[in-house]
Amino acid sequence: MSDDHNHSSVIPGTHHVVPHHFASAYAEFDASKFGMWLFLVTEILLFGGLFCAYAIFRGKFPETFHEAHLELNKTLGAVNTVVLLFSSLTMALAVNYAQRNERKKSFWMLVVTLLCALTFLCVKYVEYSHKFHEGLLTAGFYHFKGIEAPNPGLFFSLYFMMTGLHGIHVLIGMSIITWVLLRTRKGDFNSKYFTPVELTGLYWHLVDLIWIFLFPLLYLIG
Amino acid sequence: MSDKHNKDHEEHHILPVSLYVKVFIGLIILTGLTVLTSMFDFGIMNIVIAMLIALIKSCLVVFFFMQLKFDEIGNKVTFLSAFVFLSVFILLTSSDLFFRKNPEPVKVTESANQGETDQNILRMATPALVAKGKAIFQVQCVSCHGVDGYGDGPAAAALNPKPRNYHTGVWRFGGSPTRIFHTITEGSPGTGMASYSNLSVEDRYALAHYVRTFNEHNPPDTAADLEAAGLTGNKKAVVAEVKPIPIEMAMEKIETPDQVMIPMGESAMHPDSQGAKIYRQKCVTCHGMNGIGAQVPMNEGQFPRVAPITKSWTGLQADWVDSQGAFISLVSNHFPGTSLASVADLTKDEWSQIYSYAKELTQAH
Question: A interface mutation test: which of B66, B87, B98 has the most A CBs within 10 A?
Answer without folding.
Answer: B66
